[in-house]
Amino acid sequence: MTDFDKTVDRRNTDSLKWDVDESELPMWVADMDFATAPCVVEAITAKAQRGVFGYENVSEQWFDAICNWWTTRHQWQISKDWLCFVTGVVPAITSCVKSLTSCGDGVCVMTPAYDIFFHSIENTGRQVVESPLCYADNCYRIDFANLEEKLSLPNVSLLILCNPHNPVGRVWSREELARVGELCAKHGVRVISDEIHCDLTEPDVNYVPFASASPVCADISVTAISASKAFNLAGLQSAAVVVPNASLYEKVVRHLNYDEVAEPNSFACVSTVAAFTKGGEWLDELRRYISGNRNYTAAFLAERLPSLKLVNQQATYLLWVDCSAVTDDSEAFCQHLRAATGLYLNCGAKYRGNGKNFIRINVACPCNVLADGLRRLERGVNSYKR
Q1: CB within 8 A of 181, min separation 6: which ones?
Q2: pLDDT digit string (tens) for 115-155?
Q3: Which of 58, 85, 140, 283 has its CA at 20 to 30 Å from residue 381's CA atom?
Q4: Is the pLDDT of residue 314 over 90?
């Protein structure tokens, strides 16, 4: 059994997340405060002890580990011919935006959504076309009428899908995904599906890969996957794209190589192989712990902060909290929380859509750290003035 209550001191380690004042508590960026699975540490240590860090090929074990993991954990049989190594999901998305669209094209995003999607689109001279998700009864759903309206626009040629969805935490059903695929195919729109959070569902919830939802979905899509979120390996720069359509694969991979984001560093492949071949038990323990943190947060809010509502979620360790009863300006609210209590959260406004009424809280931390954060949140709410 892994002791997820153990605190790992990450201050003064050049950590992006923890490069904050000593009095501050960062619960923002999607970076866990747990040590990764021991099997990953052992694999990296063995590699480091060889003492040579030259150019690397992508190993056969890397292909096998990914194919076997998705077959056994997610019931999707991936062919090795569909896979290409890439240094990260974000570089993959940005490269695909460039290869699958033209300057000035519209790229559809269902909002609120991971803010880096907008950067990948706008920084490459494309336009974000928002299709807002429906929010009702403390849950988000796809507005299919609005989605089709946006997909039918003559300049829209690509949809970036988030599955499971960050930040709202929805695991889209097979039926929902198949309908998205049908609408995209109808209007000649391809899909990039960001599935980096797929292994972080609630213990009793299964995710459906977009490309497995229907033959149509497989034919029009590029899926970006990685062990980095589930095993806390973001700094090792290892991910993959899965492209079942052969001609689409050639186009995507050619541009990934053109962008120089398809070559592994010395630890990228061995860490992924270790995670996906030996890390299953550790991951299941992690998911149970995160679920406990989610439940702890829900109980705390219900008892101490009923003005804040935790959105119903089935995935990720990033909680999406409705603060509309307290403020309609999440940016100002988060600034107040940090100044008054040292609690550093993400304001929902950056995710667009209806995000101005929400905050995002990272609960992938020991429970005592979470308790500290929630007490700070309570003080901040009580001292906040609109």
Answers
A1: 191, 210, 213, 214, 216, 217, 220, 221
A2: 999 999 999 999 999 999 999 999 999 999 999 999 999 99
A3: 140
A4: yes
Q: Do 174 and 155 meet the contact criterion of CB atoms below 8 Å apart? A: no
Q: Is the whole model's pTM more than 0.70, yes or no?
A: yes
Token code pair at residue 349: 């406004």
At 224, which helix (H) or strand (E)?
strand 221-225
Q: Is 29 exposed, middle or buried (0-12, 13-18, 19+ CB in 10 A)?
A: middle
Amino acid in the structure at residue 167:
P
Top CATH class, 42-277:
alpha beta
Burial 219-229 (b: 16+ CB within 10 A, else e): ebbbbbbbbbb
Q: Is the pLDDT of residue 205 over 80?
A: yes
Separation between Cα atoms, residue 285 and residue 203, nearest integer Å: 9
Cα 344-350-351 angle, rounded to 5 deg: 115
User: What pLDDT is stored for residue 73 in this prediction?
Assistant: 97
- Give me the amino acid identity at 225: I
Q: What gap in Å lies between CA 361 and CA 364, rounded to an integer?
A: 9
CA–chain centroid gap for 301, Å, is 24
Q: Smallest Cα–Cα separation from 225: which of 42, 34, 74, 58?
A: 74
- 3-state SS class at 86: strand
Pair type for strands 239-242 and 221-225: antiparallel
Residue 163: count other Cβ atoms within 10 Å of its Cβ: 25
Query: What are φ and ψ of residue 15, in 5° steps?
Result: -75, 125
Q: Running DSSP on this structure, what letter comes out for residue 206?
A: -
Going from the C-alpha of 248 to that of each of 86, 266, 355, the distances in angstroms are 16, 29, 34
Q: Rounded to 5 degrees, what are φ and ψ at 358?
A: -135, 160
Nearest one of 151, 214, 148 to 181, comparing CA atoms: 214
Domain 25-34+280-383 has CATH 3.40.190.120: no
Strands, DSSP E only, in 56-182? Answer: 83-86, 106-111, 127-132, 134-136, 139-141, 156-162
- Do residues 355 and 349 touch, judged by C-beta distance below 8 A? yes
